[in-house]
Design a protein that fits this description.
The chain has about 100 residues and is an all-alpha fold. It is built from four helices and no strands.
Length: about 100
């Protein structure tokens, strides 16, 4: 028996909906994860160029996210198609944020 409060809370959770996840939602999730993975080298390059960046700094995180999101937008425009549309609709910013959080 676990003594963690979170374990007890998890046992008492009931799903709010019993609807299955659609294949479109799964595909969207996969694409977002792939974009985040593609953004990691960009975030690492930004960090390498800014060695003074602090992991706990929201300002550094914001600047990294902006820089990576811009690069993602440029790539999305060049690629076009569904990936380009996903990036243009905010997926690039989400990916940049995830990547910068990982790197910083």
């Amino acid at each position: 028996m676990s003594s963690f409060k979170s374990d007890n809370q998890l046992r008492n959770l009931n799903p709010s909906t019993s609807e299955p996840v659609s294949s479109e939602e799964v595909q969207q999730f996969d694409l977002e994860n792939q974009l985040a993975e593609l953004a990691v080298p960009l975030a690492q390059a930004w960090k390498d160029n800014h060695p003074e960046a602090q992991p706990a700094s929201e300002a550094d995180l914001d600047v990294c996210t902006l820089a990576v999101a811009i690069e993602m937008a440029i790539a999305g425009e060049a690629v076009g198609g569904p990936i380009g549309a996903l990036i243009a609709s905010g997926g690039g910013v989400k990916a940049a944020s995830v990547a910068c959080r990982r790197v910083l």
